[in-house]
Amino acid sequence: MIWKNLLCLIIGFTIGLYSTFVWFNNDQQNAGFRTTEIDVKSGHGYTSYNTTRILCWIMTQPANHLTKAIHVRETWGRRCNKLLFISSQEDEVLQTIALPVGEGRQHLWNKTKMALKYIYDNHINDADWFLKADDDTYIIMENLRTFLRPYSSDDPLYFGCKLQQHIQQGYMSGGAGYVLSKKSLEKFAKEAYDNDVVCNREFQAEDLQLGMCLENIGVIAGDSRDVEGKERFIPLAPRDVMSNIRSDWYTKLVYHDSNENVTCCSATAISFHYLIPEEFYVMEYFLYKMKPLIDRG
Hints:
This protein is of the alpha/beta class and 297 residues long. 37% of the residues lie in helices and 16% in strands. It is built from 9 helices and 13 strands. The chain has helices spanning 2-30, 65-74, 108-123, 141-148, 182-192, 206-216, 238-242, 248-253, 277-289, and strands at 34-38, 45-49, 54-59, 82-87, 97-98, 129-134, 138-139, 157-159, 162-163, 171-172, 178-181, 220-221, 271-272. The strands form 4 sheets. The protein has a 7-stranded mixed beta sheet with strand order 5-4-3-6-11-8-12, sandwiched between helices. Strands 1-2 form a two-stranded antiparallel sheet. Strands 7-13 form a two-stranded antiparallel ribbon. Helix 3 crosses helix 6 (206-216). It is globular and about 70 Å long.
């Protein structure tokens, strides 16, 4: 009888220990998707599990692998569901995807086009949304997931900082980062990649060229501003927008009329551009480590 009770105790303890391990392991896996979301109407924050799957692909080049791109991997890139580095050379440390394309501004469009096709061919089922960012762009992934949550990745949409130039619906700044729905990536790969009528071969900036292609195949350039009209994708560094140092090109090209009563950027900003490596870790500290203490006494 004693041995029988002891055996039951051991079995019960083992089951309990295993259940605890499974619960903890699942909680750790889900931790990356836990996010503080903002109720747009009330402005109040709440914690939830946001399972919006985002593949992040970083446009980089050999000279930047270990001076810029690696800092994306060590900071915000860890919060992507999948992180890819697109370059023209292999790098064992960064594990880059080397595309057969030259480097330089004149090759950026071909590099972008080939990157999108590569991702479609190899990773289309790994995510619902596909984010492109430069190696000096910082993305706040929680805000991006929260922003995308109301939208369906089955719709032909893409978002970013909308600029205007030669395109009726506008196009998204490459430096601020842009995100394509799964449907948009599929349409690009099937309808635009090898179609010279849809995507002409004339030299244009890569973000403008992509915007032309997407408009021609019916992908909608969405509005990512918040309810106050403030931009969420910002193609400038925090140090510039905070001090109101706006580049001439930004003021001239931004799609929506600027509101003089609106200062800087959205409280739910998603991206900033032109950051130096040290600023990536400054952002990490202020966003994820520093906790203001409220004295209620």
